[in-house]
Amino acid sequence: MADATSVGSLGNSRETSGRSGPIGFCHVTLVADGKSPSVPWMFAEKQTGTMFVDRVTIYCKGGDGGNGCLSFRREAHVPRGGPDGGDGGRGGHVIVRADRNVGSLANIVGRKHWHAQRGRHGEGGQRTGRNGADLEILVPPGTIVRDADRGHVLKDLARHGDWVIVARGGRGGHGNKHFATPTNRAPREWEPGEPGQERNVTLELKLIADVGLVGKPNAGKSTLLSRLSRAHPEIADYPFTTRYPVLGLVRIGYDYEFVMADIPGLIEGAHAGVGLGHEFLKHVERTRVLVHLVEPEPMDGSDPIDNYHNIREELRLHDPALLDRPEVIAVTKCELPDAPAVAELLQEDLNRPVLQISAVTGKGLPQLLSKIRHLLDGEG
Q1: pLDDT-based confidence at 278, cuts 50/70/90?
Q2: What domain count does the chain have?
């Protein structure tokens, strides 16, 4: 049995503005631009804890540049001291940075506007104004930063430490010292600071996990993740128990580990917005290996073989490249009477190995972990 620990919580850890703290669990795709959510419902999970959010739209503005200074040197015994107005400071940038200590976009959803500090004005004595402080927005690795108005991608923050400037600060204006020439020794010209860049930004999180669990609702994905890791997804005997992605860190022995993601159940038509899978199919895109769980005795009486092909079709319609992803097929709940027969039929239909596992009894889990490890190591 593999020892494991969960990958933190899927909530916020910190942000530069100091906004943090526990808030209730909530479903995804909230927007912070005053518009309604992209899905018409939200689920409150717990009164304490964190909130998982994977899409948010915010307004960012770089700091304005400081104004240049109009000043002349005034000092005893120094006639015609000349201009000495300093330049204004640059406004601060708004920067989005990937931080592995942040699990979702929940630290951003409660704040609509993000303004960087403006630059200070120039002063006499050729003193340049101080630059405005940059404002950093911390997001999880795997966040795609888009221009909300034009739709193009500014940057894919795939790794810890990746960053992008989404709103540049304005340049500081020149003081009158800058305009002094041999023929204009007492200029009275000065420049105002340039305004900071303004932009509506959409942040979209696609979780980065090594292994993704896919399958129909109630196929046993959450139970398997809780057995292999210390993650605590909600488990119940009804479909659509999982309403947001859950990550768990699975350890094999003392020197090998990988991140496993429990993706909410998919149904036919998920790529077009049916069920809960529409908002979560994107989280499958970054996984390296797919573990497809097939329930031998579905609660709705459907055929397990057809269910497998339906899920594969939904993956193809969402992104054809997902069909080329390494896949492990496993019939869950192998303690049920029909499980061996379903596994045999599925293996004959696909002409490829099909595992039989049970997250309750632990049967087949060592073989599953071994197969996953071989695929992750490229030994598939």
Answers
A1: low
A2: 2
